[in-house]
Design the sequence.
């Protein structure tokens, strides 16, 4: 399989589990109350750097990586099971870039280093969470949020301390084989090396890695030859070595290489470097001295070696260790995706008979509840008030009964201030009711008066006899008193 150092993949975090909708059902505990648990967290997608891969070949053939979803919450306040995380193993030196935003998501420079590239969604809350003193039996629960989705470009930048840069057939592979334990393909024709080769160079107790970059030619930045496709692998190197064929105009070759590097990345021209004259066995001592003197004016140290015969290899190792600068800092990753909240806006729909309300934070809240559930809609009312949706709709001219779309949910607008504006009508109704009651009471009072009048006549007749009897008695009593 061909060497792959760039690959595009799609990653998707798992959706969070929905909250549980449950009520306690026990034999001797009637109306036990809500006990729905929270939904489980969705699985996340990670990148993990390992040291037994040298390219992205093993990832070819699979373009999508999806993490499992979280489980729904259960009764007895049991939380749903969280989704398992998915780990994508990549070579050390891999950089992950978001194709939509261009942000660096991860830069893995150490073995075992991990980075999250697609976070899983959070689980929804169960109905037990929404129980209050006035809402004792909530028949709704919260939905889980969807997982994060990204399109990533994986770019392998070989982790090497020293990078060999030169024209094809300059002897870079032979030099790598002479200085390290690497055994790259070596032949007498150009473009033998078609992918970067790594080797470890040791000197007593010290060691560093060296990368053989495929050869570049003049106008490579225009796409000629292998182009600058593999120059990304020297972006991490601490020291550049310009490998020049001393028998083939090394000064012109050096200028051409510097130009091509500057076209690719101007910062590479400021990287610590060494000019290495290879194939010194093909020229005599006088010509070698002239070539060395000619290149010394470039301001870079110059060394000579014969990779074929091994002359100067030990001295070159010592020079490389002496010139090697400290390790550079890795590319700063942006980490989790930045969330930007869009403001709430109200506009007419396409038909002109309803309204559309947009706003990222508001839409996220509405998406977590069932718009067909009356209790859930009632719970959302305080969110609408806190976001100022009612005021915005009224200011835009919405009338009661019109449809309002928020995300994928559709609601019916009701002007909550209509009760205040219709208070005179309600007062008239109350006045009419009081008038009816008064008339009814008056009629009842009139009927009672007539009955009292009838009763009064009878009582008068009785009373007319009573005074007479009372008078005779009194007279008898009075006569008795007189006789006495």
Sequence:
């Amino acid at each position: 399989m061909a060497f792959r150092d760039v690959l595009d993949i799609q990653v998707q975090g798992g959706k969070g589990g929905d909250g549980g909708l449950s009520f306690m059902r026990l034999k001797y505990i009637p109306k036990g109350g809500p006990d729905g648990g929270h939904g489980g967290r969705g699985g996340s997608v990670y990148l993990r750097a390992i040291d037994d891969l040298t390219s992205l070949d093993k990832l070819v053939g699979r373009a999508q990586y999806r993490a499992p979803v979280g489980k729904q919450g259960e009764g007895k306040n049991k939380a749903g099971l969280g989704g398992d995380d998915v780990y994508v193993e990549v070579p050390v030196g891999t950089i992950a870039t978001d194709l939509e935003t261009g942000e660096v998501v991860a830069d893995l420079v150490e073995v075992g280093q991990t980075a999250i590239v697609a976070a899983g969604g959070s689980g929804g809350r169960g109905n037990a969470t929404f129980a209050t003193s006035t809402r004792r039996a909530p028949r709704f629960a919260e939905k889980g949020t969807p997982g994060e989705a990204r399109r990533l470009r994986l770019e392998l930048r070989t982790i090497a301390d020293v990078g060999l840069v030169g024209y094809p057939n300059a002897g870079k592979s032979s030099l790598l084989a002479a200085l390290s334990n690497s055994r790259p393909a070596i032949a007498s024709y150009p473009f033998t090396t078609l992918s970067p080769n790594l080797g470890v160079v040791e000197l007593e107790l010290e060691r560093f890695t060296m990368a053989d970059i495929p050869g570049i030619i003049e106008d490579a930045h225009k796409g000629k030859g292998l182009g600058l496709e593999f120059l990304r692998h020297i972006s991490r190197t601490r020291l550049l070595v310009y490998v020049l064929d001393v028998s083939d105009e090394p000064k012109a070759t050096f200028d051409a290489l510097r130009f091509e590097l500057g076209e690719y990345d101007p910062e590479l021209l400021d990287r610590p470097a060494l000019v290495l004259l290879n194939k010194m066995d093909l020229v005599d001592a006088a010509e070698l001295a002239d070539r060395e003197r000619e290149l010394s004016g470039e301001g870079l140290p110059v060394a000579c070696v014969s990779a074929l015969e091994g002359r100067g290899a030990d001295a070159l190792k010592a020079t490389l260790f002496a010139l090697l600068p400290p390790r550079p800092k890795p590319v700063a990753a942006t980490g989790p995706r930045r969330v930007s909240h869009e403001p709430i806006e109200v506009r007419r729909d396409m038909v002109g008979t309803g309204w559309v309300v947009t706003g990222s934070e508001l839409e996220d809240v509405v998406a977590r509840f069932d718009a067909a559930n009356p209790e859930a809609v009632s719970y959302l009312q305080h969110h609408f008030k806190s976001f100022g949706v009612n005021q915005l709709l009224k200011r835009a001219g919405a009338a009661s009964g019109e449809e309002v779309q928020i995300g994928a949910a559709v609601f019916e607008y009701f002007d909550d201030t209509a009760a205040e504006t219709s208070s005179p009508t309600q007062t008239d109704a109350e006045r009419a009711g009081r008038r009816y009651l008064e008339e009814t009471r008056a009629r009842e009072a009139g009927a009672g008066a007539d009955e009292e009048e009838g009763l009064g006549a009878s009582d008068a007749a009785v009373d007319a006899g009573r005074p007479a009897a009372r008078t005779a008695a009194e007279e008898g009593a009075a006569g008795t008193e007189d006789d006495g």
Residues 162-323 form a domain with the Rossmann fold fold (CATH 3.40.50.300). The longest helix spans residues 423-483.
